[in-house]
Write a structure and sequence with these properties.
Elements lengths: L1 H7 L2 H23 L6 E5 L2 E5 L4 H16 L12 H20 L11 H27 L8 E9 L5 E7 L2
């Protein structure tokens, strides 16, 4: 556990986690303003990308609001139900459940006989993965305490079939 804490506390990982939190908060704000708008994001140590049909002005306004709300203590904005962390958690847990059921020789039962157990344990794993994915976001992949993070620029970097905005940040 100390190793994980040490890794999470390294400056580059903290920057990525803070940017990931701000990315999620920005997507929450944009989604609340334009229901049903497909959006995605990707974080780096120096900022994040927002993918979706939004204007630079909309992104800038959403980033400003997200930053202010996170700094005011709305840490729940750092957690997003469509985060890749949730997908990874679900895949890992359902894969482990399937491996466990199919990898264990159950008194000579063939794989087909184990299908009902496979479906049941995989479904249980997927249900359990939902809160675990959110917990992983809260404690590992995002950091809602933005510290001294500040936005240094927002620009359109991709247009056409895919509108992409780059949000540049700095923090220690």
């Amino acid at each position: 556990m100390r190793l994980l804490e040490a890794v999470l506390d390294t400056p580059i990982i903290k920057r990525i986690r803070r940017n990931h939190a701000l990315e999620h908060a920005t997507i929450h704000v944009l989604s609340s303003r334009r229901r049903g708008l497909p959006l995605a994001g990707r974080s780096t140590a120096s900022g994040f990308y927002i993918y979706g049909q939004v204007s630079t002005e909309e992104v800038a306004n959403a980033v400003g609001e997200a930053l202010a709300r996170l700094k005011a203590g709305e840490s729940d904005l750092a957690i997003h139900p469509n985060c890749g962390t949730n997908l990874v958690t679900s895949v890992m847990m359902s894969g482990l459940a399937a491996f466990t059921v199919m990898g264990v020789n159950r008194r000579g039962r063939n794989a087909l006989d184990r299908l009902p157990t496979l479906f049941l344990t995989t479904a249980a794993a997927l249900i359990a993965a939902q809160p675990l994915g959110a917990a992983a976001q809260a404690h590992i992949t995002t950091l809602a305490d933005l510290g001294d993070l500040r936005v240094t620029g927002i620009r359109l970097v991709g247009r056409g079939r895919l509108t992409v905005h780059r949000v540049d940040t700095v923090s220690s």
